[in-house]
Amino acid sequence: MLVAVDAGGSSTRAVVVDDTGACLGLGTAGSGNPISGGPESVVLALGAAVRQAIVSAEVEPGEIRGAAIAMAGSKSVRSDDGPEHAPITAGLAAAGVHAPFLVESDILAMYCAGTSDPDGYGLVAGTGAAAIRVRGGEVEATSDGTGWLLGDEGSGFWIGHRVAQAVVADLDGRGPSTTLTPLVLAQLGIDSDERPLARLVEAVYADLPVRLARLAPLAFTAGDDPTAAAIVAAASEALAHTLDSVRGADVEGPLVMGGSVLLHQQAVASAVETAFRRRGGAGPVVRVADGVAGAATLALRRRGVTVDRAVFDRIAGSLAALRHPGSG
Description:
The protein has 328 residues and is an alpha/beta fold. It has 13 helices and ten strands. It is globular.
């Protein structure tokens, strides 16, 4: 038995999987991203999600022989003997698991959740944004993913930041009037009649910069507004460029996309796919909700199991049954 974990910024998912690719138990918890939540969040979320998955699978913690932990900012494959992995060790131990583990790239896990093809591309646009080229089941090239201060172009933060800038420019007269302004003020609970600019500035600087990502959906809500439409178009172009930066002449596809921007905003996903096709991309374009199936794939591969199409389909099918019990 193995346990595979996708530790994301908003939620953490864990699954118990056997050597045939059958997912036996699923667990979920809150944010397990050490970048946004700190090491304490890793311990709590990892412990809770893994414990729930083990209980759901009706197995004993001692039956778990290994683990794969997909986490933001990680490079595949790192050993489990470094002090930076202490929160992971503690989180697994809280669930009664003392097996060796490997830390994997969350973007590679996302890619592996969408295809069994060893060569292709992955593009994620959630709070952050990055693209990878995958060859032989491993990350061969990466573009962006450099964080909100240096990059993440086209991400939820990037869009939300531009929404906030457009509203400030509207309020102080430097920019055009935009329907984004009342939408942002309403979301932040600011009365438009009571010093809205000053209160907006106070609200933004009182919070973590990355929290500007919560304003991103407003750019799509106000899609007919010229300012909002320009932001959405720029985000689509930025993501297409990031993907193009990792293109290899001998890797045509497939393309796996994930993250809230690409998953929930059809306009951006369609624009990126169109650019991908126009520049010679081939193969299917798949969108995935998370990377837990990919983490299961990586857990099996690291144990020497060949994950062919049949095993991939077994992972996906059994995981879907756990997510939606009784639907089949």
